[in-house]
């Protein structure tokens, strides 16, 4: 059983030491533990420091491509390297390395295929009261949209079985945390949350420049993925509002017509027709979107089988990313 711990990095030379030294060297039930960093276009000594610390594998982007792209590049590399379990953590040592065993244990016991660490945000001292409330609100919205019971939906401290990782497809260029949960919920992936500990803040978050900017982009991600996964329900719900408004106007016009005053309310009849037509068109859009969604499910399943064949080929090479790997002997020399 092989575990690879992947760490997305962008100019993390100063915090990488603490993060790497905090990672576990042995976990019962795991035969091999390897570390992999995704260098997302760092301009400092992140790569050099990773080599000095004995990191087994390094995936590098020439330019910064963002957290979502880095996460998926790491997943791709871990699968090609034969990982049975993949753990994702942050380079700023936000999460306690000792808790990686908590993420791995449910996978080893077959209780889940995806485990997400619950930071218990109420207890994090450097989170402002507003941030704590927004985290709770956002997690509640994602739980509703995904049909899961994940407590801390924005936590990047998570683990995947090989099969669950093979099914990951992230379209967002911003972050993977919300999209992967909504997708997993739609695919009925077995997800579990476990309580984990966090470390004192070493640096400010770089994911967003402002709280409201993060809310705007996260809201867009949630809406987009919910509509993609449940288009018929979404469009028919919107269409129902227009049709209901048209029915109300129709009843109103009929009442006035029965009273002999219909001639003075022709405008209601016109508005009713417009609303009914719009509602009907939105309903048609829903049917078309549902057909497209069905095609995507078939494509996702096809892609899953293609990836399984490709990643199980030990002769796979890294044509998309610059990957450096080190043997145990080379690491021991460092």
Summarize the structure.
The chain is built from eleven helices and eight strands. It has helices at 16-21, 46-52, 67-80, 100-108, 129-146, 162-166, 177-186, 211-229, 231-258, 266-311, 328-333, and strands at 2-9, 32-40, 57-61, 85-88, 114-118, 158-161, 191-195, 322-325. Helix 5 packs parallel to helix 7 (177-186), helix 5 packs parallel to helix 8 (211-229) and helix 9 runs antiparallel to helix 10.
Number of helices: 11
CATH superfamily (homologous) name of the largest domain: Spore Coat Polysaccharide Biosynthesis Protein SpsA, Chain A
Largest sheet: 8 strands, mixed
Q: Report the sheet-strand fraction.
A: 5-15%
Kindly state the mean pLDDT as a whole number?
A: 87
Order of helices and strands: EHEHEHEHEHEHHEHHHEH
Structural class: alpha/beta
Strand order of the largest sheet: 7-5-6-4-1-2-3-8
CATH class of the largest domain: Alpha Beta
Radius of gyration using CA atoms only: 25 Å
General shape: elongated
């Amino acid at each position: 059983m092989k575990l690879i711990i992947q760490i997305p990095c962008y100019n993390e030379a100063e915090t990488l030491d603490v993060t790497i030294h905090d990672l576990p060297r042995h976990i019962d039930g795991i035969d091999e533990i390897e570390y992999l960093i995704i260098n997302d276009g760092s301009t400092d000594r992140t790569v050099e420091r990773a080599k000095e610390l004995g990191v087994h594998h390094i995936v590098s982007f020439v330019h910064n491509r963002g957290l979502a792209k880095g996460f998926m590049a790491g997943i791709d590399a871990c699968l090609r390297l034969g990982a049975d379990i993949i753990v994702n953590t942050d380079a700023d040592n936000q999460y306690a390395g000792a808790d990686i065993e908590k993420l791995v244990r449910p996978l080893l016991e077959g209780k889940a295929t995806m485990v997400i660490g619950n930071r218990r945000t109420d207890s994090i001292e450097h989170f402002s009261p507003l941030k704590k409330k927004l985290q709770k609100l956002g997690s509640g919205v994602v739980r509703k949209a995904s049909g899961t019971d994940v407590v801390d939906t924005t936590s990047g401290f998570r683990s995947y079985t090989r099969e669950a990782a093979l099914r990951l497809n992230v379209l967002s260029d911003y972050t993977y945390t919300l999209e992967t949960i909504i997708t997993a919920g739609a695919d009925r992936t077995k997800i579990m949350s476990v309580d984990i500990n966090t470390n004192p803040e070493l640096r400010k978050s770089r994911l967003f420049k402002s709280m409201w900017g993060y809310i705007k982009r996260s809201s867009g991600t949630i809406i987009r993925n919910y509509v993609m996964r449940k288009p018929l329900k979404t469009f028919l719900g919107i269409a129902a509002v227009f049709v209901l408004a048209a029915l109300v106007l129709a009843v109103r016009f009929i009442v006035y017509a029965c009273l002999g005053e219909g001639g003075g309310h022709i405008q209601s009849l016109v508005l009713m027709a417009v609303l009914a037509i719009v509602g009907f068109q939105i309903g048609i859009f829903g049917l078309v979107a549902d057909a497209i969604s069905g095609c995507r499910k078939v494509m996702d399943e096809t892609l899953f089988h293609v990836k399984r064949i490709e990643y199980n080929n030990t002769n796979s090479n890294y044509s998309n990313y610059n990957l450096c790997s080190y043997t145990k002997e080379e690491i021991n020399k460092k």
